[in-house]
Write a structure and sequence with these properties.
single chain, TAXI family TRAP transporter solute-binding subunit, TRAP_TAXI, D-Maltodextrin-Binding Protein, domain 2, 11 helices, 12-stranded mixed beta sheet, TAT_signal, alpha/beta, globular, 2 domains, signal
Length: 328
């Protein structure tokens, strides 16, 4: 098995050619299935790598004839754009961004609807983190005013949610010294004294935050109270969430919000292919690999797969979930 890791791609496996008449998972030719993830220090990238490894032909539960790769990207919006353009077969996205893309609302207001966007599965909750220097005097979101704050790169789901949170507290990007960096570079700049705080939406514990917490004192800024209630009322894809104490070194329990991480694809993808990929994703060997490989892997269950479905399921995924009784 080839297992090559780079900043641009997490490429797993060498395909096995489909062979044998009547093989239930056989394809007439090799299928290449690209999965857009996120930054290399976020949650999407490592989880995507485990999924790609597991569903590839070389995985114990893999789909015969399939080569799956997990590619680093700018996140939700970039992944949906890649699916729409045909540059990727699938991708990770936040549930809010997926719903906006499909309906042409929110972030996609005034833009063409991505009507072919389809859900394979909801994976795990993604937590809104606002990471701050412990000595920056930032106790609430309101304290971000006038501070040097990274809200992530354009094209990410994080930047969308950061703007929603800032707006709820009466803060615009003009009220902060905005930077547009991924979590890794944000942490490095914060450690070097060039940044006071940064936003990140992803499953905890996030590697980039764990790393920065090991080298300097940080805090997590809570998103709670009437402002959070206002967000929940206006944007029902958000949920209340709490980061447990000591998830990150020296940081107490912090109330915040979360959205759902989803694996999405295009309606143009063959039903049989997506059916087999979905079946492989929830096979016993894949489930074991996910549970052992990442803290959020244990949340990737059939029960969670059919929650927060703000867009239609792909027929192949729907067929599988109906077979196992997850959808009625």
């Amino acid at each position: 098995m080839t297992f090559a890791i780079s900043r641009r791609a997490f490429t797993i496996g060498t395909a096995l050619l489909a062979a044998g008449v009547g093989a239930t998972r056989a394809f007439a030719q090799q299928a290449f299935f690209r999965i857009g993830t996120g930054g290399t220090q976020g949650t999407y990238f490592p989880v995507g790598g485990i999924i790609a490894n597991s569903i590839s032909a070389t995985g114990p539960a893999g789909v015969e004839g399939l080569i799956a790769t997990a590619n680093a990207s700018n996140g939700s919006v970039a992944n949906i754009n890649a699916i729409q353009s045909g540059a990727s077969e699938s991708g990770f996205t936040q549930s809010d961004v997926a719903a906006w893309a499909y309906t042409g609302t929110g972030l996609y207001e005034g833009k063409p609807k991505v009507e072919d966007l389809r859900l394979i599965a909801t994976l795990f909750p993604e937590t809104l983190h606002i990471v701050a220097r412990a000595d920056a005097g930032i106790k609430s979101v309101a304290d971000l005013k006038g501070k040097r704050v990274s809200i992530d790169e354009p094209g990410s789901g994080t930047i969308v949610d950061a703007r929603i949170v800032l707006e709820a507290y009466g803060i615009s990007e003009k009220d902060i010294e905005a930077e547009y960096l991924k979590p890794g570079p944000s942490g490095e700049k914060m450690r070097d004294g060039g940044l006071d705080a940064y936003f990140f939406v992803g499953g905890f514990p996030a590697g980039a935050i764990t790393e920065i917490a090991s080298s300097m004192n940080i805090t997590l800024v809570p998103v709670s109270g009437p402002e959070a209630d206002k967000i929940l009322e206006k944007y029902p894809f958000f949920s209340k969430n709490t980061v447990p104490a000591d998830t990150y070194k020296g940081v107490g329990a912090t109330e915040t919000l979360s959205v759902a991480a989803q694996l999405v694809t295009s309606a143009k993808q063959p039903e049989e292919l997506i059916y087999n990929i979905t079946k492989s994703l929830y096979a016993e060997d894949t489930q074991k690999a996910l549970a052992a490989g990442h803290a959020k892997g244990k949340a990737i269950t059939v029960e969670n797969a059919v929650t927060s479905a703000g867009i239609p399921f792909h027929p192949g995924a729907e067929k599988y979930f109906r077979e196992v009784g997850a959808l009625k």
